[in-house]
């Protein structure tokens, strides 16, 4: 599998990443082990997780498997902290909570460092400088190699990246993990231009539009799908609407013409978008992961890529379209 630099940092990551959001809940440990083996055998290196996935069980599953499957220095572990869904505040990016969460993640993962540590969401109740100082402390301690953010708005991401680059010794923001797919192209307005200007890489989560771009929901909701899952139904529902259906049909048509699956088309499209360092595959089963990994062999013909750009294009209004120097390619 091809490797790419994470933004302008020295960290190389596989251009397809293994997501673990369902591990410890909808994906059992045996299937998780199969997924990890398949991913590593395909040349993948980047494993994405978070302290809240499976209430920490996803990290524990990863920790139980890694020692048996690959040397630690050949794996890039990315985790996140700052979401606190079971507490009085849903987000807590205070220094104390972040550093406690990091220590707990390291224990579950069975390692003394993570390669990439990301703040999982913007916390308006904590001073921005305090949150970023926690990243500095974690990197300085050796427990974290690189720092990033996830699900921040463009101004929040740009502020963090600019603040961290203002003085030597601060931990640069090297990554922003954001939702991006043919069904959700909002980051093209400002996040991707900011990434190009400020030097951070983008990790794309939910590249299959929460599973909708596979085409599995064209005729209903399969009983074994995320839309039928107690934990994930609301997550999928947002993309089961008419605009999404027209995009899905375009993907299905393209796939039929190329003799591949719709998910391969959707993944190949996003993998080759400007500014994307890695695409996170959130497979629930090993069979789904194998299908997703086949996209590594596919490069879309230009005319198909352009057609998909067109059918899924978003409106770019003022002031984004007035931004001097924004690469035209970001606007579809």
Q: What would CATH call the architecture?
A: Alpha-Beta Barrel
Count of runs of 4 or more consecutive helical residues: 11
Number of domains: 1
Q: What is the makeup of the main sheet?
A: 8 strands, parallel, barrel
In CATH terms, what is the fold-level topology? TIM Barrel
Output the radius of gyration. 19 Å
Could you state the order of secondary-structure elements as H and E? EEEHEHEHEHEHEHEHHHEHH
Q: Regarding CATH, which class? A: Alpha Beta
Q: Could you please describe the fold and organization of this structure?
A:
The chain is an alpha/beta fold and 332 residues long. The protein has a single domain, classed as NADP-dependent oxidoreductase domain (TIM Barrel), CATH 3.20.20.100. The chain contains 11 helices and 10 strands. The strands form 2 sheets. The chain has an 8-stranded parallel β-barrel, surrounded by 7 helices. A two-stranded antiparallel ribbon has the order 1-2. Strand 7, helix 5 and strand 8 form a beta-alpha-beta unit. Helix 2 crosses helix 3. The longest helix is centred in the last third of the chain and has 17 residues. InterPro entries: AKR, AKR_Detox_Biosynth, NAD(P)_OxRdtase_dom_sf, NADP_OxRdtase_dom. Keywords: Oxidoreductase. GO terms for molecular function: oxidoreductase activity.
In short:
This protein has helices spanning 29-41, 57-69, 95-109, 128-140, 154-165, 191-198, 233-237, 242-258, 262-271, 286-293, 302-311, and strands at residues 3-5, 12-14, 16-19, 46-48, 76-81, 114-119, 144-150, 173-179, 201-205, 276-281. With 332 residues, the chain is α/β, with parallel strands linked by helices. It has a single domain, classed as NADP-dependent oxidoreductase domain (TIM Barrel, Alpha-Beta Barrel), CATH 3.20.20.100.
